[in-house]
């Protein structure tokens, strides 16, 4: 997380809701060597205490889960390059604005019998966002095919011990400079979802 506390004023609830709504992140663990990373969709519980996900059985992280492991789940939001010319101030330098939330805790492999329920709840979360499309459900897959696919993945759970966030949105600049940067971010931004980033820089999500 960024050390400047100006960028870390979001509450635990705000950070958790961002992570929950995003539902996708980078899982990082260290087990006897270089950190292992995996890009995963996940479900964060309403009480913010657990994150559930599945891994391909051949994933090195899954193979390392003979016992629980300390892990961090990094969830990224919009990001973009900020040109110093956009502030309308002298003696400025380039930077990069972004939103990121980290969930830290211990992950474990769960019993295989929990997998189908996890898949149903996970697909429901995202399918609901596609309304009015009729939701896809696992019962649309032939039982033999579903069983074969499920043998390839394993259910996992993280006990979430800490939630931290960085919302680097030029809070350390005067309001007029931040507005100017937000205008240019929306018009010319380079990065991921710069229109949303621009709105967040203004303090209002449009």
Helix-strand blueprint:
Blueprint lengths: L11 H11 L1 E6 L6 E6 L1 E2 L5 E7 L3 H5 L4 E14 L12 E15 L5 H13 L15 H8 L2 E16 L6 H14 L2 E2 L1 H9 L4
Antiparallel strand pairs: 1-2, 1-5, 3-4, 4-7, 5-6, 5-8, 6-7
Brief sketch in words of this structure:
The chain is α+β, with helices and mostly antiparallel strands. It has helices spanning 12-22, 60-64, 115-127, 143-150, 175-188, 194-202; strands at residues 24-29, 36-41, 43-44, 50-56, 69-82, 95-109, 153-168, 191-192.
Description:
- It contains 6 helices and 8 strands.
- With 206 residues, the chain is of the alpha+beta class.
- Strands 1, 2, 3, 4, 5, 6, 7 and 8 form an 8-stranded antiparallel beta sheet that branches.
- Helix 5 (175-188) packs antiparallel against helix 6 (194-202).
- The model has no long low-confidence stretch (mean pLDDT 95).
Main sheet attributes: strand count, strand direction, barrel closure:
8 strands, antiparallel
The proportion of strand residues reads 25-35%
Summarize the amount of helix as a percent range.
Answer: 25-40%
Radius of gyration: 20 Å
**Total helix count?**
6
Distance between the termini: 26 Å
Shape field: elongated
H and E string: HEEEEHEEHHEHEH
Instruction: Give the integer mean of the pLDDT values.
Output: 95
Low-confidence stretches: none
Structural class: alpha+beta
Query: Tally of extended strands?
Result: 8
């Amino acid at each position: 997380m960024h050390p400047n506390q100006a960028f870390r004023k979001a509450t635990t609830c705000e950070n958790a809701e961002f992570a929950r709504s995003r539902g996708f992140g980078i899982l990082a663990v260290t087990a006897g060597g270089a950190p292992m990373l995996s890009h995963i969709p996940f479900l964060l519980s309403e009480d913010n205490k657990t994150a559930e996900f599945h891994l391909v059985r051949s994933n090195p992280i899954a193979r390392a889960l003979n016992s629980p492991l300390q892990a961090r789940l990094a969830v990224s939001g919009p990001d973009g390059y900020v040109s110093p010319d956009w502030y309308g101030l002298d003696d400025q330098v380039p930077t990069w604005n972004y939103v990121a939330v980290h969930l830290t805790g211990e992950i474990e492999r769960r019993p295989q019998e929990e997998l189908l329920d996890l898949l149903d709840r996970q697909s429901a979360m995202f399918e609901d966002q596609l309304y009015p499309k009729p939701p896809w459900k696992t019962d649309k897959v032939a039982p033999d095919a579903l069983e074969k696919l499920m043998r390839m993945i394993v259910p996992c759970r993280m006990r979430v011990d800490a939630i931290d966030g960085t919302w680097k949105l030029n809070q350390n600049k005067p309001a007029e400079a931040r507005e100017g940067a937000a205008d240019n971010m929306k018009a010319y931004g380079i990065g991921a979802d710069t229109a949303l980033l621009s709105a967040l820089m203004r303090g209002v999500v449009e």
